[in-house]
Amino acid sequence: MPSDTLPPAPSPARADLYGAIAGSAATLQAQYLGSRGQRQQAHARGQLAVLRRSAGFTPEQHPLALQSVLDSLHPLLEDGELGTGDTASRSERAAFDAMCMFALHMQSATRPMHVSGRSFGSAMGMLRIRNDSGSLKPRFDALLAARNERARLTHARSLVTLLRGEQIGLDYGRFAQDLRTLASSARGGVLLRWGRDFAVMPRRERERDQTSEPTSITATTTP
What we know:
It is a single chain. The protein is mainly alpha-helical and 223 residues long. It has one domain: CRISPR-associated protein Cse2 (Peroxidase, domain 1). The protein is built from nine helices and two strands. It has helices at 17-32, 38-53, 63-72, 90-106, 120-130, 136-145, 149-166, 172-182, 187-212; strands at 14-15, 76-77. It has a two-stranded parallel sheet with strand order 1-2. Helix 3 (63-72) crosses helix 4 and helix 6 packs antiparallel against helix 7. The longest helix has 26 residues, at 187-212. The radius of gyration is 21 Å and the shape is globular. Mean pLDDT is 88; it is low at 216-223.
């Protein structure tokens, strides 16, 4: 072998939809919040601004935005998740919508908005506890009752801005998986789970508060 022959470049890490979105969101938010230094923070701010401007479009309407989303993923999507024709695959579409909403969610954030393990429905239930003006449940119900994918996404983006206002995060890897399922005939299961989490979360929080209250001890005196 000639001495000037370079070794092959290592293949970039790849993951399924959950791993790609969860890993990318965690990295971007760490950079944005400043834990990786000022240079990385500036990079994340610029990348999130590009993604934020793409919210509300479809990949076909804004091909450059899809390119930006795919380029922002580290790890990358596995080959089986990528499209091969002139339309975006379901995984690409879900990645596009999830990352654009994550960028909306992170705007002016001072804490992580990607929170592993917390579903969209649970996040909305937490919002209901913290700041329920009476209009939240009708808005959440409108999302569950929406008759098409674009209407659901419009409602979801609106609700994400409310979560941003209270700095309540959610698991974006799981959210991306749910968005992909919502585009299929199995959407009813996701909507059922979101509705359950929305209803149950306030009750769980109340029970947690009650069990964490200190037990009052009444002092007695000997006659």
